[in-house]
Structures are given as C-alpha cells and as structure tokens.
Design a protein that fits this description.
Length: 562
C-alpha cells in the first residue's frame, strides 16, 4: 500500500474522553458527547482526532490501563457508537487515530489474570516476572528500580513467590515484548482497529517497551527514576517497531510515538524517512521542560530560552530528514497558559503560545480546551486530586518531610489533573459538560462562567476564533509545511521570532512572552511596515517608532508575509 504521508498536512485535536462531553447524562464524558461535538471539532479547521484510550479499563490510570484492547469502555459507549463517531469524523474530513498502549496492560486484563494464576500458563511469560531476594527475612524486589507512578517497580505475588514489573502504577504490569506471542498480539490489535477504518495510532511510551537483558540494578539514576536507563530506548526497540511498522505498511495510516526522554539524535533512527523508518514522528518532551527539571514535579522558573532552544533544535536537526510532532498541551501536563503564559494576560498569552508552535514545521496537535485558553484549577486537598501520579508525588513529599500545605502547593503547580477538568462548553451549570442535576466525575474549574466555548463563539477576538484563524492560515500557506526555519534573536528572554521561507515567500512569526511593553529592532529586509500582516492578537499593529525601535505590548504576537 502506498503511504501518502497525509499527516504532513494534518492538524489534530486530542480528546481525553472522560472530560470532553457527557452525552448520556451520567457525569462522565463519552462517545455520545463526541458525536454531539463533531461539527464543533470540524469548525476548528483541524483535520483529525486523536483519542486518548477509549477501551475498557478499571481506571488505575484513567484508561492507560487497558483490560480489553478490542472493545470500548461501557462508560464511553460501545463499538457501535464508536463506529458512528468514526464515520461521522470521516464524513467531515477528519482522520481518527487511537491510543495504542502496549508497554503495559491493566491487572484486570485476562492475559494478566492468567499470567498471575500459574507459572505454567502460556500467559505467564506475557509479563515480566522475576524471583525476588530476601532482606531481613522478608521478600524484597528483584532489583532497585522505581516505578514512575507508585513506589517500587515491583509487586509481589505470594502464590507464585514472584514479582511482576510495573514501570507505571501497580495496576499497569509491563508486557514482555521479548515474547514473540506478545508482539503477535500487538499486531493483531493494530489490524483490528486499522481494518475497522481508523487512520493510525499514537503509541504510548513506546520507547519503554524493550528492557535490558538481566534487568540490572541502577546505581546511577536519581531516586524516583531508578531503572529508566535500562528500559528507555532499549536493545530490541527498533526490532519491535520494525515488526509493527510492517503492519502499518498495509494501510495508508500514520503512527506517532510518545517518547519521554528522546532527543533528535536518539529519535532519528526511528523517524528518519527511508527504509528503516519505524514511526512517522515522535512526541518529544524537551520543550515541555522550560519550567521544570526532568518532570513537572521538579519546578523551575519558566525560561523562554529553554523553550525556544528545544523547539529550534528539533526544527533544525530533523530538517529534510524527518517530521516533527508539535504540541504544547496534552492530558499529562498542566495548562500551558498557566505554565508558560500568564493568567493575568490569559487570552493574549494563549494566543502567543498558539502562534509560537502552530507555524513550525510538523504536525500540530491541539488538546481539548486549549483552543479556548483554559487554565489551571485549584485543589484544596489531595482528596480532590484523582490522578495516581499526583497522589504518589504527594505521598513522597509528605514522607520526605514536607508539610501538607507545601506538598499541595507543588500539586497545584504540577498536577496533570489541571488538564483533565471538564471542557468548559458554556456558562450553564457544570460548564455545560453534563446535566445540571448530575455531579461530574471531576469538578469543573470554577472559572467556567468567564472561560467557555459559548462565550468565545460570540466574540470575534476570542482565543477560540484566534485558533481557527491560525489553523486556517497554517493550512493555506505551503511555506508552513515545507519552508525552511530560522530563529531570530536567539538570546532574547522575552521574544520568540522565527522565519519560515521557501522560493515564493517568507513568513515572519513573532511572539512576545513579556507581561509588559518590550522594545526591539528588526534587521534590514524585515521592516514590519513592508510586510503583509496575516495574523495578530491586538487590533492595531503600530510600526517603528521614530528612534527605529518597535514596541510590543504584553504577549503580543504577529505573523507577517514578506
Ligand atoms: C503516557 C500517557 O500519556 C500517560 O497519561 C500515562 O499515564 C502513561 N503513558 C502510562 O501509560
């Protein structure tokens, strides 16, 4: 099958189903809600939807712990309504990609139940079981690895006197990708969805699926991530992905891999276009570390330089060789306007952030609620925070001596639940997410009377309508897809300016990240008065002052054509 690489012209909208829209009135987002909102999604100008997991799951990690790969969580609908969504999306010109989560399953998956029932079961070797050690007379884990979500990376099964590996939560046992039967299962799952008509996959933590032989102790890594260097980008990763690629090659589809620790250098062997390519693009995390170290839970002040440097490095190093996946929000990070922008200048900063990445080379993804500039919420106590990883962080902080107030301050800054509050559709009760007389599964952000889709629809200058204009512009201009990339004023702590250029035109993209007026000069050939202003987030666009300086207002952004 010829692969047309249609994804190079695509713009995706990510749905985290539980919080998108409740269509059956039980307080939980679902596929009936998605059906209601397909026209809205299409109205954004996007061309595809990525669904975070829709499969049956006991929700240890809200869908990322899968109990059945070939079905739909009954809270969200069933295969029949999924097919309606798929058809409805296709009728509107929207592709649909599914989350493929095969580093681990749920403990509720029948494979795992069989696996833990007996060492003689053919499913036992579907997972990573090891004998432990004994410390002070009590069973101790096989090695010193940490899980990323819940304590040590091992859980003990007394009946077997063995431990199973879980890099994430206890309810997410890691699959043994060295077992050919497991890989064959993955192929089967891929065929199942592709044969149904889905257009590809977002592959969850795909760079973690191959573990180093012998699972050695890790004496180098900082506590909390011990073991990672033995499963990140592991020895048989390329081999596994090549096998999965052969399935993808039978369809005109796409695959984007999530790759937490990836750098361009490490990514290229997977995404470089050519016979060895295994993924179309990868989600990297480097630009998401501009206000934190290693993870969101180790905060630092926001540095525009770090943000720009990361984006520019990927633009530069993939140029002509591989394709970028572009995003600034998803279900795993707090809201970007609160993080990298300013809640005081919420709308302006949300727009500047949109411009900062929507005109780069690659395929952009927009996360639900990002298009109206949703911001972080506030949690008064850990009981209000559903996410396993935030709860784990809280426990760790308390154990290391933090007061509950201090630990909550960290959670309020870093929890990914900020991105998981219900989408704010209107100023109606519960933000129009679910019926007024039903409690939503997760409290809506109390700011919904001011920040909501209905309000933005009625305002030509809203964040929502700005996103529509920016997405339309991106799709109209071939230079955004194909042009070269050059960053200006790299040393600036407040401005992110870049040029996209091809034989026909030059696009100048300008964003201020300052919360006050800032001055700058432009090089010859870029006098703004000579350019055609295509997009801006202020009503007027003053030219140079008599002294030759331009002045940008807080979070001002403009896109010019030369
Ligand atoms: C990455 C997903 O995006 C995240 O939500 C999930 O918790 C982990 N992988 C584990 O599946």
């Amino acid at each position: 099958m010829e692969r047309t690489r249609w994804y190079k012209d695509a713009v995706f909208y990510q749905i985290w189903p539980r919080s998108f829209k409740d269509g059956n009135g039980d307080g939980i987002g679902d596929l009936w809600g998605v059906l209601e909102k397909l026209d809205y999604i299409a109205s954004l100008g996007v061309t595809g939807i990525w669904f975070s997991p829709l499969y049956p799951s006991p929700n240890a990690d809200y869908g990322y712990d899968i109990a059945d790969y070939r079905s739909i969580n009954s809270e969200y609908g069933d295969l029949e309504v999924f097919k309606q969504v798929l058809d409805g999306a296709h009728e509107r010109g929207l592709k649909v990609i599914m989350d493929l989560v095969v580093n681990h399953t749920s403990v509720e998956h029948p494979w795992f139940k069989e696996s833990r029932a007996s060492k003689d079961s053919p499913y036992h070797d579907y997972y990573i079981w090891r004998k432990g050690t004994v410390k002070d007379g009590i069973p101790a884990p096989p090695n010193n690895w940490d899980s990323l979500f819940e304590g040590r990376a091992w859980e003990y099964e007394p009946a077997l006197d063995e431990w199973y590996l879980h890099i994430f939560a206890k309810g997410q046992p890691d699959l043994n990708m060295d077992n050919p039967a497991v890989r064959a299962e993955v192929e089967g799952i891929m065929h199942f969805w592709l044969d149904m008509g889905v257009d590809g996959f977002r592959e969850d933590v795909i760079t973690f699926i191959s573990k180093v032989e012998g699972l050695p102790n890790d004496y180098l890594m900082v506590p909390g991530a011990r073991g990672m260097r033995f499963y990140d980008n592991g020895p048989r990763l390329h081999e596994c992905l090549s096998q999965f690629r052969r399935v993808l090659d039978g369809y005109d589809c796409m695959a984007v891999g999530e790759a937490p620790m990836i750098t361009p250098h490490k990514a290229l062997p997977f995404i470089e276009e050519g016979p060895d390519q295994t993924l179309d693009m990868m989600f990297n995390f480097e630009h998401m570390g501009a206000d934190c170290l290693f993870t969101d839970f180790v905060p630092m002040p926001f540095s525009l330089r770090r943000y720009k440097d990361a984006l520019s490095r990927w633009q530069r190093e993939l140029d002509g060789r591989a394709w970028n996946a572009l995003y600034i929000e998803n279900h795993d990070h707090p809201r970007i306007a609160s993080r990298y922008g300013s809640e005081r200048y919420r709308e302006k900063s949300a727009m500047a952030l949109a411009v900062s990445y929507l005109f780069l080379k690659g395929t952009p993804f927009v996360y639900q609620g990002q298009e109206i500039g949703m911001v972080n919420t506030h949690f008064s106590s850990i009981d209000e925070v559903p996410d396993v990883s935030a709860r784990n962080q809280y426990r760790n902080r308390i154990a290391s001596g933090d007061s509950p107030e201090k630990a909550m301050a960290l959670i309020n800054r870093a929890a990914r639940d900020h991105a998981r509050t219900p989408v704010q559709w209107s100023a109606e009760p519960h933000a129009g997410f679910c019926p007024a007389d039903v409690d939503p599964w997760f409290a809506e952000n109390p700011n919904y009377p001011e920040i909501n889709v209905a309000r933005d629809e009625g305002d030509p200058d809203s964040v929502l309508n700005f996103y529509r204009k920016a997405i339309a512009l991106r799709r109209e201009l071939p230079v955004v897809r194909d042009g070269s990339y050059r960053e200006f004023k790299r040393a600036s702590d407040v401005h992110y300016f870049y040029v996209r250029e091809d034989e026909d035109e030059k696009l100048l993209v300008m964003c201020s990240f300052a919360d006050k007026q800032t001055l700058f000069r432009m090089p010859l050939g870029f006098e703004l008065e000579k350019g055609e202003l295509l997009l801006a987030n202020y009503a007027d666009a003053p030219g140079a002052r008599p002294d030759g300086f331009y002045a940008f207002r807080p979070y001002e952004c403009r896109v010019y054509r030369f």
